[in-house]
Amino acid sequence: MENITVNNINTRKPIHDEIKNIFRAVSAELFDLVEEEFMEALSSTSL
């Protein structure tokens, strides 16, 4: 873990935005994985 310096207390918003971006990226990755799995499951199931 990085040490958070006192300066960061005054610049909370950029950190918040960074965390938000990380969450968005992770959600997008997870969604792609789930979608891929779902499509594979659909195509391998005989209806």
Task: Please provide a written account of the structure.
With 47 residues, the chain is mainly α. The protein has one domain. The chain has 2 helices and no strands. The longest helix is centred in the middle third of the chain and has 33 residues, at 12-44. It is rod-shaped, with a radius of gyration of 19 Å. The model has no long low-confidence stretch (mean pLDDT 81).
Question: Which descriptors apply to this entry?
Answer:
47 residues; mainly alpha; 2 helices; 79% helix; rod-shaped
Walk me through the topology.
Elements: H1 7-10, H2 12-44
**Low-confidence regions:** none
| Proportion of helical residues | over 70%
Number of strands: 0
Write down the overall mean pLDDT. 81
Distance from N terminus to C terminus (CA atoms, Å) equals 50 Å
SSE sequence, one letter per element? HH
Strand content: under 5%
- The number of helices is 2
Total count of domains: 1
Which term fits the overall shape?
rod-shaped
Structural class by helix and strand composition: mainly alpha
Short précis:
Helix content is 79%, strand content 0%. By secondary structure, the protein is an all-alpha fold. The termini are far apart.
